[in-house]
Protein 1
Amino acid sequence: MKIAFCIQEDKGKESILDSRFGRSPGFLIYNTEEDEAKYITNKQNLNAAQGAGVQSAQNIVNEKVDVLITRNCGPKSFSILLEAGVEVYLSKDSSVQIALDKFNKNELTKSGNSNVEGHW
Amino acid sequence: MLKVIGKMDIAIASGKGGTGKTTLSVSLTLSLQALTNKKVRLLDCDVEEPNSHLFLSVKSKTIEDGWVESCEFDAEKCTGCNKCVEACRFNAIAIVKKKPIFFSDLCHGCGGCVLACKFDVIKSVNRKIGKIVTKEGNNVILRYGVLNIGEIASPPLIKQVQISDPEIGLTIIDSPPGTSCSMVTSVEKADFVILIAESTAFGLNDLEIAVETVKGLHKSFGVVINRDGAGDDRVEQYCKKESIEILARIPDSLNVAKHYSNGKIAWGIDKEFTSNIDGLATKIIKRFSL
Amino acid sequence: MKELLVISGKGGTGKTSVTASFAALAKNAVFADCDVDAADLYLLFDIETIKKEEFYSGTEPAIIQDKCDQCSICYDLCKFDAIGKTLDSKGKVKFEVKPFSCEGCGVCIDNCPISAIKEMDRLCGHIYLSKTQYGTLSHAKLLPGGENSGKLVSAVRKQAHVFASEHGAEWLLIDGSPGIGCPVIASVTGVDRVLLVTEPTVSGIHDLERVFQLCKHFKVPIYVCVNKFDLNIKNTDWIKNYTIENNETWIGTIPYDNSVTDAQNLGIPVVNLPKSLAGESIKEMWAKIKTDTGEIK
């Protein structure tokens, strides 16, 4: 299973989670079977004039991610992830490791809807 | 540049709102109509907050749909090649499981995706984003746009407000405040721009930015000082230094403000105000041989 | 932290004078001037800029003149009339990008058969963080004709938000942009309260409804105050009743008072001007807001 996290900079599982999804500086994609973490940059979206969430969701989908763990997710991003079958879990934790531990213990809530308005 | 509005188009603009732009646009329209005895058109291009119609009693009314060019996808034909996603700089398209997901509110109608698609999936369509209202009476035509709540693209609607009978000799364009894309779209086709400002700290700061913008658009322009006497002489000094013509000074008047609060333009009611506006109108008529 | 956004339907209703006065009255506050089209708040403070950053948004094309063979495809395809066609002194056709008209869609770049147009990041303005005598201010200046103020608004707000969170500020006061378009949406989302500063004019009444709709859409409670209320008592009463009927909070009135203009030209918040009637009214409003928002953390 592949799990994606929105992070500020790549420090493996110690990476700090970013509060945004669309304009998150990058994503850490953790492969549970191989216990490997891969970083993909989201830099082009930091400067996007608009629709950063759409492009970020597209990036996540293209990486064939199964689960996204994020602090926030807007309506457009959510609809794309839903269509692609990516499950969205909300976490207010500080680091990837803490959020991952909680996810493994089934302590994170699966989101059935976007939790923030667009233009956030 | 190709002229598309009328024969002589004068835009009224200001760096910020609340400087008397609508008051000036409406009263100048009425004054020019009275002095030339010809048909005058007023285009209210402030589609986010159109106000001119509140001050003009013109009767007959037609309503058109206001639209923006957008696109439509034939999902059956889509191969998921991703070319449209790459072409769209506005991130309005995503491809999931080889099918497009389109967010129309992000679309600017540039047609980039239509050009990029090799499989004839995408076609251009019009999407409704508001309405255009035209009213006419007493030799005055008023045309304004109303943008739907939640829509973000004013320029397409502004351009539609400006598509109007090209045979009209004189058009006044009430442009939206600020110096962003909506203001630029509104004044771009004008032959002359009148910038209106109050002589205050905010007024001068905003005027300077508006001047830079109209200079960047290579427009000839002049300044009208509103509420003259309420502030100091900083706008006067600035115009002198920059060699900008001051077209008129409209004195500060509680009477004019009270009329405005009741939805009345003081032109034709307040003697001093009327003579100031008529003076400006006469200057315009002479300058452009109307 | 409490986030209060001050807006007006139309411009020039005294929104910035009110925000600056609240700034002078609030303890432990951070300010954001999100009215980037008319960024005037800083004119009422003594400021010392501590950070200046370039703000880029989207991209813009540049035609490489040496490479261009005047095929005219970009000119024909552009939906925004953003490619200018001129003749030089020798009568040769020249195509140029008109930056104020360009929306950055990239159609010219992608469809140039000989790749004679390059794509560059578009500089739209600058973002500043400045110290003032009342607290830290996040503000911006748009380049003339600069676009995407919605995104710039978010960036200004974000900078203020981050600074306020890091420094444990009690208040984040935001001077919002006029209108109901993208910049306003970008400033309304996520605030705790909106204060609408309006005037007792038919325009003010006309705009009221649209602002209410917008705030309802984003589920933000509204405070309403009327500036220059004595211009038209009947309209002031109308606005007051409308506010109460819509279950929003009526917060007070400010009289027509030239001391607001005087303070502005002196470069100070009007509450700092002795014996200002407008200043006294604003002080009363601020006291009400402080009490009313007591519960928000």
Note: Chain A has one domain: 2-110.
Protein 2
Amino acid sequence: MANILSVEGAEPAAQAGLKGWFARRMQTEGGIAAFFVGPALLLMVLLNIYPILHSFYVSVHVYNLKRPHRNPFVGFENYVMFLESEDFYNALINTVIFVVVSVIAVALIGLIFSLALNELGSGVRKWAVPLILVPWAVPYVANGLIWEWIYHSDYGVLNGLLVALGVIDKYQTWLSNPDRALYTLVNAFVWKEVPLATVLFLTALQAIPEDLYSAAKVDQAGAPRRFWHITLPALKLAFLLVLVYTSIISIKTFDLVYILTEGGPGDATALVSWYTYVETFRNLQFGSGASISYVIAIATFILAIGYIKILYRPQES
Amino acid sequence: MKELGLSRRKLLRNAALGTAALALPVSRATPSAAMVKSLNFYSWTYGISFVKQRIAEFEKLAKVKINYGNTPGSKYHDTLVVKFTGKTPLDVIYMIDGHLAEFVEAGWLYPIDEFPRVDEYRKEFIGPTADALTYNGKLYGLPYYVGHMAFLYNEEHLEKAGIGAPPKTWDEVVQQSLQIKSKGIQEYPFLQFLKADFWMGEMLFTMMYSRGGRFVDEKYNVMGYDKPDSAVAQSIQWIIDAAKKHKITQPGFMELNEVAALKAFSSGTGSFAILPNYRLRAANEPKSSKVAGKIKMALIPTANNAKPNVCGWTRAYSMTASAAKDPARKAMSWKMVDFLGGKDKSGTYRTAKKWFTEFGLGFGHAPLFKDPDIISAANKWGEAKLFESQMALSKPKDGQKAVWYAEWDQFMRPRVHKAILGQADIVGTLKTLTKQWNRLKRRYG
């Protein structure tokens, strides 16, 4: 049977050489790894690394589609321009508030839900976990549209519910109130992201040996102490995952702004992602859009490294 | 013939050349167009069943397959930018006059002046249409529809409040709204929509034009826009007063978009609304409106003894530059533009006529004003003469053909919102907008 590694039609000497080299490489662990990982790596280079490098190239040029044939090299001028822009700082402050509140809310609510689910019997949990994952499975745009109906000041479900419960006496504006609008976005984001955090925490909780709790009870440790000394340390890795993932996703949040507020009212919900979008696709300034994206990517990377430094200890994991 | 300086040989040669020249466009265009198997057509989401019906007719006629795509109007600009940038094949598209400069400068559109019948069509365009579709002296499409913002009112509410005629001035809008409100007919009689999206410019320009204001002149010089008593300053102040002082505007007006405003108005919310003129038909359509038959149109209210001018616009069928790169594709694309935006064999602007009679969309062709079917349809849900009068008083947004207009428009939206919210003062905001306009003008000029 023909060897799958043979090179059809090659010169015998060359074939022997190439075949021999290839066979020798395939005898080593590194060679096999390279054989299997290589194609994926090549794809990654084409689909990820090249665009990253190209976007850096774009970011140091004027790339304005309204003047498509004038693309002079401007060094870091695009970076300086947006760093000097008031709109960018406003978007940055909004983003920091959005990220901090969202990440804390997702982590806390996810933890509470997972603790509650962990206390339930496995029969109930089997049904509860898939159900709780539903919001997470809703596409981002659909999520935005759902919340548009909920928040609408004239016919929104939220107003109807709150009036029915007697919490408010007349319909309120949620999306067009500059003091509330950003938090309404946070709420919509948290609703979508809590399920995944819950499942991650729940998985970690179920991996904690029951013996540890039994021993702690023997030592007269109350529930708070058991939680503090056993549960929380065991959740460090889950916390790391939730924090890194939620931070990245919240920094990238764009769909909710696009669907619900378009950055308004005023600039109350203009996040950095929205600012980048407007600069790139509305103003057609691809050069400065790329420069902002670069800075966001670097900031996200630094944040992720920070989380890992603080929370990740290999010996503990 | 000799006396005329023309020999027989010369005459025959010239005649042959002339015949060849006349035949050339036909012989080059027709067979090559037949070689095209498919075209890519993109529009925004409106009247899709009718669009598909026309596409099917064109496919049969031209023996070509049309790959049709669409996206909601509010996302149309951004979607097209992504498609053009990503080199998605597009041959014929809907085009918004406000994006013309931007798209031409980006190299995405192809002028249609070279095609047969274009001059004939151009002569029949109504007022602002030819100008709206022309950039640097070249025409970039045939009209799909021409529209303007219109002042609509619920006749029943006015009658219940004992109001005999719709308001003629902006002060009367306030007075009548307060009257309606005091009788408990509507809590917020003036249905305002002012989400920071595509329609915000149309709304503000309408309110400014109806107060006699201008933004920039033909050379893009700002015309007193940032003065404390400017028409735009008065318009913004009116919006603030209507919401906060008189409480005649619903509190959530800054989150309301155009479609939601139509739905609210059609469900009986609000006594007055400024909506695109074609929405009059939808608001009077019994299948979709609770107030069908009660919604009327009036000339836009005015102030400062100004004419009732409104912001108008033209939407077109345009050919892309990528389609024009291939002669066969170019010929077929023109065929489609002509089929949709031009006349049929009987000399009727068939698609435009149908858009009006079935959907209420205005047209860009003067002869249609005299068409009995159009007049009859118009009188079913309004007054044909009033439509013509308000159309004649519509003007495109000042400065929209500046290549930087869209960038300025985007800059304007959150700032006007902030002025309405009281987070910035009106004149300061207008000065910032003027400064930004001048800055962009210097950059692109």
Note: DSSP finds 19 helices and twelve strands in chain B.
Protein 3
Amino acid sequence: MKAIVNVYLKNGVLDPQGKAVHHALGSLGFLGVKDVRIGKQIVLELEATDEQKAREEVQEMSETLLANTVIEDFNIEIV
Amino acid sequence: MSIAILRFPGTNCEFDTEYAFKKLGFKTTIVWHNEPSLPKDTELVVVAGGFSYGDYLRSGSIAKFSPIMKDVIAYAKNGGEVLGICNGFQILCEAGLLPGALKRNTNLHFISKYQHLKVMNNNNSFLKKCEKGEILNIPIAHADGNYYIDDDGLEKLKKNDQILLQYVDHAGKAASINGSVESIAGICNESKNVFGLMPHPERAIEAILGSNDGVKMLESFGA
């Protein structure tokens, strides 16, 4: 079983990398972009077979290490 | 006074820090991150600068789980004094010993230069030798120094005199260097025994090398 954790800066927390990319896209003539947010995708290969259990475990991993919940939000996909 | 200087894989300011404190007459021990506990006679823990664990995931995010950090957290909770410089500041925020977090600089650059700082509060054991409002000149060298804290947290910092240092221009006016909330360069915890700052006082101890403004910060711990 695989878990995909997507980590982004929280809404309202300025994303300097997203802002720079937004600016660069504008310079290249892509003018229809309203906002850019850059995050991280962390892919975990799990031994677990029970989806619910895996989800709970990855939730704990994310809160403990994978995301800094002071500035970041995350979501978990189990595939 | 006996100072424990922490060294993680990737730390690179432990010898500068040791040199500075020794020059000021302190006893120092460099403590490897795998040690289970601090030396018994520790009177100050310094989390030195560098790039612990290559700054992977987030600056300081992996170092906070090193074996020695358990004892450092217990030491701090017990009232022991802890100072985090640069990467040390990032580690202390990640470990929850200091509020807030440090993000990538808004200009995305690694900024390395002398920087003016204003002493915002001196009613603590780190800055007691400085005057409130005094302007210091101390080097900064970081890519992730953009201090973030939410509005409620900021109010608490202000109310309790926890904002220690602010980036300013030579005239003392707040300067936006890296995007930090209110140009914050250093803070302490609520009980004023844990200190964190992005600038490097250990690199400003000899006038011939540009500044000795770091001396009164570092020697304040023994006073």
Note: The CA atoms of residues 49 and 153 of chain B lie 25 Å apart.
